[in-house]
Design goal:
3 helices; 5-stranded mixed sheet; 875 residues; mainly beta; globular
């Protein structure tokens, strides 16, 4: 018996020793031209342990199990991933040389945005692009909004700062601010459920930092049926999750403008199937325009934790955003010539490329708050989003070809939007005349003085400023997207249910000022009438905006949305895939909205009622109106993809979808007395036919598209108009990456669009601000540790408004960069945005000018030249 026990102990010890034997595997990962791939990812499957290659493409994998075969997946951005099975049962194996084939457009990569089932780009029947972090950096963006300019088919008017961006897709109209037909998402769920909320566009609550893994953008296609209020497309910011260990710390500073920013990110597996990622940024500075104070100040923190199981995963994540950024409104601009051949130039004292309406002499806005009490807001708050989000997602294989997926997020959103807007600009006498007409004052022989110093003002030009002062009281939302999927032999069916709640509660508390016409430290001006009576204080000639009939508003509405949907895809033949999806959206909206009134109020508590205090704008709660309506509509999408070869395919799709209005329908005649509504839905039908392939010279993605939009009326604050048009557009979208050598490549895209208004007074005209051509062109060259390139972004001319009178000229931006890798962990970059300091208009308020005269209009230009330097430490 003792001998038997001893033998069993020996056997157990030998078995334990054999199981603990580990092996080491060495090798090299190269591209198709034998170029070493620095930072290529190597995943040990199914354990999901990750390794990376060094600067020569070499790797050493230690601690591998020697008693079995191991499966390794090799991947690198811009190349097709491949798997290898290596037999390590003998404890060793020959060195591996793994060659990855070029895939510049990453057609083999699996996409998750706007599709029911994750599929590769090559086999999907949608137009989708992946924007890598490296490519984002090469375009030298100064704001999150400027990232959108590099996406094919997307026209982003990235001139408003870190938010308030107008975005359109393939000729779909910019009928209001923001992104009415396109949805911005973060990790597969919308940031806000409506993209065109006045003074609270989705990009205000979205920031890009080092936690970003990639951006996926779908244009048209199944975005109609796999999202609510996203018929024209989806831009999805996808976060890193820490599957492989590593981190980074980055610092950047403006060399010719006020900006200092620090970013960090770190992620890693932590054992037992867990991995995490945490990161964020903080920045402060005056910004690229001459605000005269710290206009950008704030940051973001994001983190997530994932637990992997044998049949799926669970992920928890959280985000906190608290950022202040200046909102840049249109500025005064001089125009001569004619409407068809205008010449744009700076107004004396105001540089449209670097000047700002913000000023250290106009930092406080005084008026009545929502409760009727005195309220003072800080203009330095600018766009000030405060967002706290928590979320969870899971994905599990249930067996028997069933799987389940769910994403959910709850966000507490609030903040403020405050920015000076030029109601009108021109001669001082014209400004006084406008004030006299609005206030009913006699300003004949009135005198103007500097509000701070009391010095007489004798300048010939001035401005009337409307302070867009808006409290974002409650923009909380909850979103849940559930999917149940069944796979068959040659196809699959997905059943989904989408649920969302969105609050929109805000207060418009606007006021009016008379100021000097200056883009660098404008100064408020006080008015004294001919009899010596001072009419204003601190340049504020009205508590409210009487030039526009006063626009104090308060509304509090809640949107309850539900949408069941079904999607199916089938492999008809090994080369042909077809898919179809349907969705039905239901909505219930409740709330109230109130307009304005005027009261007599001693605003400065000096015991004297100034002329400007005779009619103080306030919220008229006595006339509060209800909002109470329901809506529903259906959407569908049909697509097919045919594989010509292993690396080429063609596809076709037809989709019909819609978006619904939120706050922009309030204060229009579409809201009836009982709170019911008409014209809430805007319909869009789209068709596309495309080709995608990896060719000998690189990758090519070409799509012909058509869209038809039937749009009901929506209110636009800056023009004080309800805009309602029908449109159609067709065109061609091209995306390509050409690899001329291992060192030299060209990324390029172009979108040609023919868009027309098809109904109403402007029938046959081009939609406003709709360019027939937008393009990007990025040649880059890499030689060892040095990388250089120039990102070129261009747009052809367009009309300022739908009446098609005043033209805005096209422009081209050149954004060069120099990147030098000092070591495998330290990289330095110097980049310039708009290095030629080009004037490029993205919008204008005026529809026309007086031909062959000197006119002053209000227009918004892209920011002028900015140069920055950065250091990135990776570990």
């Amino acid at each position: 018996m003792k001998k038997l026990l001893f033998a069993l102990l020996l056997l157990g010890g030998y078995t334990s020793f054999a199981q603990s034997v580990v092996a080491t595997l060495k090798g090299r990962v190269v591209g198709s031209k034998n170029e070493p791939l620095l930072g290529a990812s190597i995943a040990l499957l199914p354990d999901n342990k990750y390794f990376i290659t060094d600067q020569d493409g070499n790797f050493t994998l230690e601690g591998l199990p020697a008693a079995r075969e191991v499966r390794l997946k090799f991947s690198y951005s811009g190349y097709t991933a491949t798997e290898r099975v290596v037999d390590l049962s003998s404890g060793t194996a020959p060195d591996l040389v793994v060659v990855l084939q070029d895939d510049p457009l990453e057609l083999s990569a699996v996409v998750v945005t706007g599709v029911a089932n994750p599929v590769s780009k090559l086999t999907s029947s949608v137009s989708i692009s992946t924007i890598k972090v490296d490519d984002i950096q090469k375009s030298s963006p100064r704001t999150t909004a400027e990232i959108f300019r590099t996406i094919p088919g997307i026209k982003a008017e990235a001139s408003g700062g870190e938010g308030n961006t107008n975005i359109t897709v393939r000729g779909v109209p910019i009928s209001s601010g923001g992104s009415k037909y396109l949805q911005l998402q973060e990790d597969g769920l919308p940031v806000l459920q409506f993209g065109d909320i006045a003074f609270a566009t989705s990009d205000i609550f979205l920031r890009a930092d080092q936690t970003l893994a990639r951006v996926e953008a779908i244009r048209g296609g199944s975005a109609s049926t796999l999202g609510t209020n996203s018929p024209a497309g989806i831009i999805n910011f996808i976060s890193k999750t820490g599957q492989k260990q590593g981190g980074s710390i980055g610092m950047s500073a403006g060399l010719d403008y006020g900006n200092f920013r620090t970013d960090f990110n770190y992620g890693a597996p932590i054992g037992n199937g867990f991995h995490f990622n945490v990161g964020g940024f903080y920045r402060l500075g005056e910004g690229p325009r001459t605000a005269g104070f710290t206009a950008n100040n704030g940051g973001q923190l994001k983190l997530n934790l994932t637990k992997n199981f044998a049949n799926g995963y669970v992920r928890l994540y959280a985000k906190y955003l608290n950022d202040r950024a200046a909102s840049y409104m249109p500025t005064p601009l001089q125009v001569t010539g004619t409407n068809s051949r205008p010449t744009y130039s700076a107004v004396e004292g105001f540089d449209p490329k670097h000047g700002a309406l913000q000023s250290p002499y106009l930092l406080h806005d005084l008026g009545l708050g929502v409760n009727g009490a005195l309220r003072q807001a800080n203009v330095a708050d600018g766009m000030h989003p405060v967002s706290s989000s928590i979320g969870a997602e899971f994905n599990f294989d249930l067996g028997e070809n069933w799987s389940i997926e769910n994403r959910a997020r709850y966000s507490l959103n609030k903040g403020r939007f405050i920015s000076p807007f030029p109601a009108t600009a021109g001669s001082t006498s014209a400004m006084l005349s406008a004030i006299a007409g609005a206030q009913g004052w006699n300003l004949t022989n009135a005198r103007l003085t500097d509000a701070a110093t009391g010095a007489a003002f004798t300048g010939s030009q001035a401005m009337l400023i409307h302070m867009f002062d808006v409290e974002l009281n409650n923009f909380n939302n909850f979103v849940n997207d559930f999917k149940l999927k069944k796979d068959f032999g040659a196809g699959s069916v997905t059943f989904g249910f989408y649920k969302a709640y969105q609050n929109i509660a805000m207060s418009w508390l606007w006021n009016s000022y008379l100021t000097t016409l200056s883009g660098k430290g404008l100064r408020p001006l006080d008015i004294t009438n001919a009899s010596g009576t001072r009419l204003t204080q601190n340049g504020q000639f009205a508590y409210g905006v009487p030039l526009w009939g006063n626009l104090q508003r308060d509304y509090n509405t809640a949107y309850n949305m539900s949408a069941p949907y079904v999607s199916t895809s089938w492999e008809v033949t090994p080369a042909l895939n077809v898919d179809a999806s349907v969705r039905w959206d239901f909505g219930r909206v409740n709330g109230t909205y109130s307009g304005g009134t005027t009261v007599r109020k001693d605003m400065n508590n000096d015991g004297v009622i100034l002329a400007s205090e005779e009619k103080v704008a306030a919220i008229d709660y006595a006339s509060t109106k209800p909002v109470n309506y329901r809506y529903n509509y259906g959407s569908f999408s049909l697509g097919a993809n045919y594989k010509l070869q292993d690396n080429q395919s063609v596809f076709a799709r037809y989709s019909s979808g819609a978006t619904t209005k939120a706050d922009r329908i309030l204060f229009t005649n579409n809201v009836l007395a009982d709170g019911s509504i008409r014209g809430v839905k805007d319909q869009i039908d789209q068709a596309e036919l495309g080709y995608k392939g990896n060719l000998g010279f690189g990758g090519l993605f070409v799509t012909a598209f058509y869209s038809r939009v039937n749009e009901q009326g929506g209110f636009e604050a800056t023009t004080q108009r309800v805009i309602a048009n029908h449109y159609r557009s067709f065109g061609l979208e091209i995306e390509t990456i050409v690899k001329l050598s291992t060192a030299f490549s060209i990324n390029a895209s172009a979108t040609l669009t023919d868009a027309k208004i098809t109904q109403g007074d402007n029938r046959g005209n081009f939609p406003r601000r709709q360019s027939p051509l937008i393009f990007t062109f990025l040649p880059s060259y890499t030689a060892g540790p040095l990388s250089i390139g120039v990102s070129t972004i261009g747009t052809a001319g367009s009309y300022t408004q739908d009446v098609n009178q005043l033209k805005m000229k096209g422009y081209v931006l050149f954004n060069p960069y120099i990147n030098y890798r000092f070591s495998s962990f330290l990289t330095g970059t110097v980049s310039a945005n708009n290095i030629t300091n080009t004037l490029g208009l993205t919008e204008a308020e005026e529809a026309s000018i007086t031909d062959n005269a000197t006119n002053i209009i209000r227009a918004r230009s892209i920011t002028g030249r900015t140069i920055s330097a950065s250091l990135l430490l990776t570990f």
